[in-house]
Predict the 3D structure of the following.
Amino acid sequence: MTKYLLSASAAVLFAALPAVAQGPGGPMEHGPGGYGGPMRAPVTNAPYSATFTSTSTEKLQDGTVLTRTDTRTASRDSMGRTREEMTFPAHGDSAARISITIFDPVARTITQLHPDDKTAYVRALRTPPAPSTGTVVPSATEPARGLHDDKNVVRTDLGSKTIDGDVASGTRTTRTIPAGTMGNATAIVSTDEKWVSTDLKIELTRTDSDAFHGTHTTTVSSLNRAEPDAALFAVPSGYSVKQATEHAGGHHGGGPRGGGVPPSQPAEGAVPAPGM
């Protein structure tokens, strides 16, 4: 809990800060819109496999630097099906575990595999309702309303460069909380820079930096554009298949861990305020 109340303007700026704790933007760029959310249009005829390494660095008030690194692999076939596999190292009393998520726009399902007990939790993807006559459907690339004309948010085109053999276009977004907005003596600046593959439509690298969360960097490696093995997108033999349950509010449960399928990368600005 924060020890002070934020003004309305400060709250808006906090909401615009980048999600530095998120994973790579590439693998789930066309996955479901969160837990059990409506299916987004898949990217087809652009297969790939890659490894994404994320490093988070945070400096505490006493000078202690906390560093965390995690790695996950991702694959997508020509039909737009994706698979993400992430290993969580042992921490305290918790044993190491593997999280595997399969998004299948053909079968219209998303599956969470639990290798520890060989269980697969499957849920159906909801189809978004057709817009009524006269309804304007915002473009997927339309800037968040309220930020587009915000003088405290500046977006810069960084041009293009080659990353791990693939051409990517870069964008840097700089957000500023002016001095005095929340009792800050000087302006607080946060930046996020991302490079998106022109052909694959995935983020190849991303760096988010701000005073509240530290720095989070994600980089791609071992990028392979060959068609991945079809078996990667199916439930392995020997697994028990269960249907994921839906809780109040339309959210789905994913089994005993309660975590279910991790949501796709949050939309820009969709992060909680610091201290929450």
Summary: Residues 60 and 66 are 8 Å apart (CA to CA).
